[in-house]
Amino acid sequence: MLRLVAVVCSIGLADSLNPSTIAPALYLASGPHPRRQVFQFTVGVFSVYLLGGLIIDFGPGHLLLALVPHPHHRVAFILELVAGVAMITAGVFLWGYRRQLAARSMPTPKATGRSSILLGAGIMVFELPTAFPYFAAIATIVGSDVGPIRQIILLVLFNICFVLPLIAILVTLRIAGPRADAILTRARAKLEAHWPKVLAAVALLAGVFVTLLGATGLAGLGHGHLGQLARRLRHRLLHP
User: Fold this and answer.
1) Is it the case that residue 175 has pLDDT exceeding 80?
2) Is 29 in contact with 173 (CB distance < 8 Å)?
3) Who contacts 162 (Cβ-Cβ below 8 Å, separation ≥6)?
4) What is the DSSP string of 176-189?
5) Does residue 59 sit in helix, strand or coil?
6) pTM, entire model
């Protein structure tokens, strides 16, 4: 379970540096009733992302796993390896296009007066179909063959990690008081200038970590099979 927690949290933290959620939260933090607005936005993001993960996990995720004729431990390690390689690939892509991405303007909520919770929920509805890090985490959870309660706990942990930057904004609003607006304005400026580099670095680090977990798991599984084969051969030689 600790292994899965490490994998899920590392992917969730890498995925949390998402300008589609952080930029609107920073915008709301500079408006009227900032704490309430950012809190509602965070609830909307968390709820929809978690609900989408649960639907995928307990729906098509298990159906696809049932088609794989391999032992569950091997499937879990292979999925960890695939998830790690996918994150490394994403990190390399982000680094390669960092200048073009940084030149784009950050997403800003439209001033339509709609509820912040609906804004957060709406953003995640559009983000979910392309949430490849989330899919990688869900695939790892499904392939691990842990029980339904533990799968739900793991998905909750992923989503807590995902909204950590939004929680950090809330904490800043709470602690900094009148200085919060200046602090968060500087944070938005830095995010606009450097988010591709930061996200690429975090994705690469998390990808390497998850890849190593999957590779060492497969290596250990292979050594276990070799040990069993050696014991069988020895038994046959000693007891023909």
Assistant:
1) yes
2) yes
3) 12, 15, 16, 18, 45, 46, 49
4) HGGGHHHHHHHHHH
5) helix
6) 0.72
Nearest to 163 by CA among 50, 42, 49: 42
Helix (H, G, I), strand (E, B) or coil at 47: helix
Residue 234 half-sphere exposure, CB side, CA atoms within 13 Å?
6
Q: How many CB atoms lie within 10 A of CB 51?
A: 15
Tokens 């950090």 belong to 168
**Poorest-confidence range of 73-77, 126-130, 185-189, 225-229?**
225-229
- Tell me the mean pLDDT in the region 143-157: 85
Determine the Cα–Cα distance for residues 88 and 114; give it in Å rounded to an integer.
38
> Which burial class, exposed, middle or buried, applies to 54 when counting CB atoms under 10 A from its CB (0-12, 13-18, 19+)?
middle
Question: Dihedral of CA 67/71/72/73: which sign?
Answer: negative
Average pLDDT over residues 95-117: 65
